[in-house]
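User: My collaborator sent over this chain with a note saying "see what the structure looks like." That's all I know about it. Can you take a look?
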Amino acid sequence: MRIQRFYDFATEALAKGPDIQAVDPWSRNAAHLMGWVITFSSGARIWVGLTTTAAPGDKDDQKEIPVTGDAPTEVPYPELYADGKITPTRAQAYLAAALTNSGSTEISRAYPYSDTNQHPGLGVIFHSEARASLLFHHTARPGQDKGSSAFSLQTEF
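Assistant: Without extra context I'll predict from the sequence alone. Here is the result:
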């Protein structure tokens, strides 16, 4: 699934998470980054950047040919809040569940990154062997705005 089509699809799929209040576009006014500002039911927000890797042999100047297979088996949404706060680890598992539960037959697997990754986020592997990476750039507690330093995430928000 190419980046623009995945972006449009994921905007709708992520918004269906029970604890997600809004999924708004975020471009950082840069041509090289697209993503979302995701607002949770508590009012906390996370800024998520999107990058993709094309499927082997896929060329942007050619028509996209979707590759389908079985949709991932639905999973229970993990607990998002601990004492009313969200952590990056909990957010990445929650958002991975939202994409897993989307019913997309183009997605092979959506998964949260390991706690040992340099930056929190989640990954998506498609049946076409294309990949999407959703990295967390900023977080904000309810009523706050994002910080000025990308990837300096709050431990709880």
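A starting point for your reply to your collaborator: The beta strands are 20-26, 34-40, 45-53, 107-112, 121-126, 131-140.
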